[in-house]
Amino acid sequence: MALKCSVIKSNRPCPITGSSEAYEVCNVDRNRKVLRNIISSKSGLVYVDPVPFENTEEFYKTDYRKSYKGVHQPKPKHVYRAGKVALERFSKVKNHLMPKANCLDAGSSSGEFVYLLSSRGFNAQGVEANLPYAEYSQAELALTVTKSPFSEFKTQEKFDAITMFHVLEHLEHPVRDLSHLGRFLKPGGKFFIEVPNILYPDMAFLHKWHPGHLFSFTDKTLALLLEKAGFKTVSCASIGDGGNLWGVFEKPKSPLESSTTVTKKLYANRVLEDLIKQRIGYYLRVFNFIKLFRKIPTMISEKKKSKGLSGKRILDLLYKDCHH
């Protein structure tokens, strides 16, 4: 498939390569409001250009959760759902951790993963920019959570592991923030990251462009970004049904040489081709029309099992039942 897209110059350069050469991928978000996503012709990284917020960190500090879920603090069903997801993530992390490892959850939200780590005997804390959610995790779950954007985070602690789940795609300056957090990771320590997979075929093309997702990753561009920030890739691939990417990265004991990997223009073209094919391909798979109906029993179960319970009680029951 030959591409006939015109090269444009981005307002902000690709954080991996520093190049401003790009192609336009889509010019509206999932709500059909103006939002331009582009793809770097040098790295294949997809990102929003220009950034739609006057002050990104201020937006996430106060407004993001309200605009995303319609609430300033999580409902019981949200806590239950997040608790189930935390168990899935813990199953991927636990074999990398020594007993009583010192862990930081970067973007700890309402605290479900930090609470799970603590319940399993790890020394865990969080850092969360959104004030209402951070305050909820402090008050409801009695967790140690620093209310701060990553760029301003400070601690005397050194961590064996840092986790970041569905947060990286929201950062305006990902290399800066990853590098800053890496200062608090011990040499040889692990950085676990989960993000949406922009090449997931079972999501409608227009629905991919979330207004808060400033970056969209493939397995290759996720690894490249972490390498740019000074980490070594241990593994990076899609998980589950392919909707998300899971990366395990390590802080090297000596600094990496700059630019460990060089991408080719051909890769960016291939990513763009795949995205263009998905404009139609999504609608050719019958499964995608019945997904909502398959979710209904789960939604009913979440509401039933969490109704009338505090967040702490929900998680205590959930994590006790799954302890083994």
Describe this structure in words.
With 324 residues, the chain is an alpha/beta fold. The chain is built from 10 helices and 12 strands. It has helices at 56-62, 64-69, 76-93, 112-119, 131-141, 174-182, 219-228, 265-281, 287-306, 311-321, and strands at residues 8-9, 21-28, 34-40, 46-48, 102-106, 123-128, 145-147, 159-165, 185-196, 215-216, 232-239, 244-250. It has a 7-stranded mixed sheet, sandwiched between helices. Strands 1-2-3-4-10 form a 5-stranded antiparallel sheet, with helices on one face. The longest helix is centred in the C-terminal third of the chain and has 20 residues, at 287-306. It starts with 7 loop residues before the first strand and ends with a helix.
Question: Any low-confidence stretches, pLDDT <50, length ≥5?
Answer: none
Tally of distinct domains: 1
The number of distinct helices, counting runs of at least 4 residues, comes to 10
* Beta-strand residue fraction: 15-25%
The CATH architecture comes to 3-Layer(aba) Sandwich
Question: Biggest sheet, strands in spatial order?
Answer: 7-6-5-8-9-12-11
What Rg do the Cα atoms give? Answer: 20 Å
CATH superfamily: Vaccinia Virus protein VP39
Keywords:
single chain, 324 residues, Rossmann fold, 5-stranded antiparallel β-sheet
Write the layout of secondary structure elements.
Layout: E1 8-9, E2 21-28, E3 34-40, E4 46-48, H1 56-62, H2 64-69, H3 76-93, E5 102-106, H4 112-119, E6 123-128, H5 131-141, E7 145-147, E8 159-165, H6 174-182, E9 185-196, E10 215-216, H7 219-228, E11 232-239, E12 244-250, H8 265-281, H9 287-306, H10 311-321
Parallel strand pairs: 5-6, 5-8, 6-7, 8-9
Antiparallel strand pairs: 1-2, 2-3, 3-4, 4-10, 9-12, 11-12
Helix pairs in contact: 3-4, 3-9, 3-10
